[in-house]
Amino acid sequence: MKWLYKIVLILLIFAVVSSAGFILYLFDKINSAYGDKAAYDLGRGFKHFSLILNSGDEKYWQDFKEGVIEAGKAYNTAIEVHLISEPESNAKTVEYINIANKSKLDGIIVNGENTPEYLEAILEAAKGGINIVVGHVESVDISGLYYVGTNYYAYGQQAAKLIAQAGGNKKQVNAAVILSGQQSGGMDAQSNNMLSGLKKEIEGGKQINVLCTPSRTNVLLGAEDLTKSILYDYPDVDVIFCMNDKDTMAAAKEIVRRARVGEVVIVGTDYTEEMKYYMDIGVIYGVIDRNGHSAGWKSVQVLSNAESTFQTDCVYIDSEIVTTINADEQI
Amino acid sequence: MRKIGKKLFKSIKTRVIVFFLLTTVLTSATSILILGLSSNTIEKMDDMFAANVELEEFLNDMRKVNTQLTDYLVTDDSDSLLNYYMYRDAFTEKANKLFDESHGIYNQDDLIYKDIAYMVKSFVEESDKAAEAKGKNDADEYIARYAEVNKITGYIQTWTDKLNLSILDVNTAQYLSMSEDLKNLRTANLVLLLSVIGLNVMVISYLAYNMTKPIIKLAHSAEEMSKGNFDADDVVVHSEDELSVMANAFNTMKHSIRKYIDELHNKADTESMLLEQQIENLKIQSLLADAEMKALQMQINPHFLFNTLNAGVQLATLEGAERTSNFLHDIAKIFRYNVKSLNRKVKIKDEIDTVRAYSNLFQVRFGDIIRFDYNIDCSLFDIDVPPLIIQPLVENAVIHGIGEKESGGEVYISLERGEKGVYISVQDNGVGMSEDTVQKILRCHEFESEKSGHTTGIGLYNVVQRLRLFFDCEDVIAVESEPGKGTKVTLIIPFPKDMAN
Predict the structure, then answer these.
(1) Do the domains A47-150+292-317 and A152-290+323-330 sit in the same CATH topology, yes or no?
(2) Does domain B2-216 have CATH number 1.20.1440.210?
(3) Where in chain B is the domain with CATH 1.20.1440.210?
(4) pLDDT tens, residue by residue, A32-59
(5) Which of A191, A114, A147, A149 is nearest to A290 (CA)?
(6) Which of A172, B47, B150, B190 is deepest in the core (most CB within 10 A)?
(7) Which residues in A lie closer than 8 A to residue B111 (C-beta atoms)?
(8) From the list B41, B48, B155, which residue is nearest A99 (CB)?
(9) Mean local confidence (pLDDT), B192-217
(10) Does A40 touch chain B (CB under 8 A)?
(11) Cβ separation of B104 and A41 shorter than 8 Å?
């Protein structure tokens, strides 16, 4: 019986010690969970920027946000992040700009739709002495208002080259262009600039026949529907060009679903890992990556240096072509 | 240190106190730990919603300021203006406390707080400007300022809602994260509590077992002692406490008592032996007294009887009755011999002579019905023997052996040397006896001492006992008998020292 007594005693002591240790561990975990807020020491005299992002679910803006946050840490800058979802996004964007203005922030990074209210709010903020980086307006002539992002004219030119390559040996490539269509009233500035660049290339000798340039006019209308219409309305289409990652993937899936693999190829925008498969099976020929991360980083850099060394109001971020040749490197 | 510990634990009192303190401290520490952690967790849970409550109060204060401003702008009432300033100051003070920038560490919520703080400043500035414009009756100005105030109020409301949602999100996430941990915490608390209870039970059981085990041993040993068993094993206690001292004392006491009892036993044995000796002596004296008493009973005025018998002898001689004279002479001889003390020794010759006289009397009484034959070794006549040892045998042979037989019989008396000594045999061819009867006769003197007018009254048992006492020897008689054939009783007289070889 003595050995049984000893075993039970040892087990009980072990149970007491381990349960007490476990309780302390849990308590510490609960305590740390309670105080677990993303805090970082920004020191004194830091700059305070607000990032107001519409279309936040697009890959470009996701990368953009990451770039902003990382740059914020690097430049000892506090960044408020406000992601706005689709319904009433314009009104929200405008309100947030006004709040940033009233909150006397040092800078705003925003990608709202170019509505009059939006432009007025930006103008008001700029007048209030706030430096602003916009993601959608390339041509600005207000002091303290900067554009950091893609040169959509050059982007159009790149697209034309890629479309021509995607057409292979065809003398004339029939292409359809799905515009990003941010502006409900019509074609937005970047689409316009992109088409200008594209046409310039065609004029320069590229044998591309742009069959159509549809855009999403409703949030419920996806690229699948647009692709379906293109395939139906233009059965001889060779290449479909999309201006963001969501449209690229939707179009690629639709081509597979419609059994048009090998007949129609996609030239997409903003490379994601998911696209690799469609590249491998020949649905996506190539992708123009707009490098959202760099754009975000550069935005913070621009605002941080706005009062001192920064000289220009437009900062273009180079896009990168991704094809099957260099897709693995991107991942 | 170890020595001190060992010394401390030698005392039961110290051991009990230490174990009691150990269990108490263990239980208390567990309870305090669980209570402290639970209280802390509950406080934290309470704190989770404190910020939301604070923000709600802040919004209410702002609405009050706005209401008072509106009242003033609408009514131009100085009381409303005073109220406005009062609420504005209180609101500003609270807002300043709410948004503390001093720590310099920010997260998203802190930045929103900071925005609100700036918006509050704008709110107050615009409100004051509206109030001032109202004072100056500048309607356009105060309407524009009031619109701005409402706009800012809306922004603050939006930001406060956002903050509330953010806090709620964080709190919800924290609660979800914590709830699983809280469940585990509850289980761990239960395990800890049960383990501590178990541990306490084990410690107390150990203490109780170790303390009571020697006591139980002592109790069992004491019980054995009370039953008279002093040979039980010593109580062994391995500890070095008071119980050990008690056990040693108990063992010593047990040994002392056993020794004392042994001494008492030895003394009692010695006394018993002495008593037996005394009883033997008393028995001898009793037998002698018994024989003498019986002899005395027959001494009815012996002088008168002897004189009378002598007179009878002389008369018979004078009348020429020689047989009568011999008969009376034999009677007188026997009486004379019998009335002498039994506490003396006689020669075998005397015994044989008395038996001859005795047999003569029977010859006269019964004639030829009883015949007596003798085979006597005269060289053995001088051996000393107790008196009246042969006559009772002859008497038994005549009365119980032949007397029961109508046809009469023979009595054969012999004196001769035997292997073990001198054999004096009295043999008859009477009715004989069974072996059981023989043994009873030898064992029980009552059986033999039946009173009869025909006997001397001295039984075989008396004869045997006197022979044993006289010669200090047990083997003094041999009885051979067979029913219907007769009985032979042999007295074995040890050889005297001078005849031993």
Answers:
(1) yes
(2) yes
(3) 2-216
(4) 766 555 555 665 567 889 999 886 678 8
(5) A149
(6) B150
(7) 48, 78-80
(8) B155
(9) 84
(10) yes
(11) yes
For chain A, the structural domain boundaries read 47-150+292-317, 152-290+323-330
Q: Looking at A124-278, which runs of residues are DSSP E strands?
A: 131-134, 145-150, 173-178, 208-212, 239-242, 265-269
Q: Do A39 and B110 count as a contact with CB atoms less than 8 A apart?
A: yes
Helix (H) or strand (E) holding B387: none
Residues in CB range of B285: below 8 A, 6 or more apart: none
Smallest CA–CA distance, residue A318 to chain B, in Å, is 31
pLDDT band at B216 (very low <50, low <70, confident <90, very high): confident
Cβ atoms of residues A107 and A49 within 8 Å? yes
Residue A286 has pLDDT above 80, yes or no: yes
CB contact under 8 A, B177 and A48: no
CATH number for A152-290+323-330: choose from 3.40.50.2300, 3.40.1580.10, 1.10.150.20, 1.10.10.10. Answer: 3.40.50.2300
Give the residue on B whose Cα is nearest the Cα of A17. Answer: B192
Which architecture, in CATH terms, is B359-499? Answer: 2-Layer Sandwich (3.30)
Task: Kindly provide the ipTM of the predicted complex, given to two decimals.
Answer: 0.80
Inform me whether the C-beta atom of residue A48 falls under 8 Å from chain B C-beta atoms: yes
Residue that wins the pLDDT comparison between B436 and B457: B436
pLDDT digits (tens, 9 = 90+) for B49-94: 788 888 888 999 999 999 999 999 998 888 889 999 999 999 988 8
Is the CATH number 1.20.120.640 carried by domain A47-150+292-317?
no
> Quick check: pTM over 0.90?
no
A29, A98, A100 ranked by CB distance to B181: nearest:
A29
Residue B103: how many other CB atoms lie within 10 Å? 9
Residue A189, phi-psi category: left (phi > 0), alpha (psi -120 to 50), beta (remainder): alpha
User: Which pLDDT belongs to residue B336?
Assistant: 80
For chain A, report the end-to-end CA distance as a whole number of angstroms: 66
Higher pLDDT, B268 or B300: B268
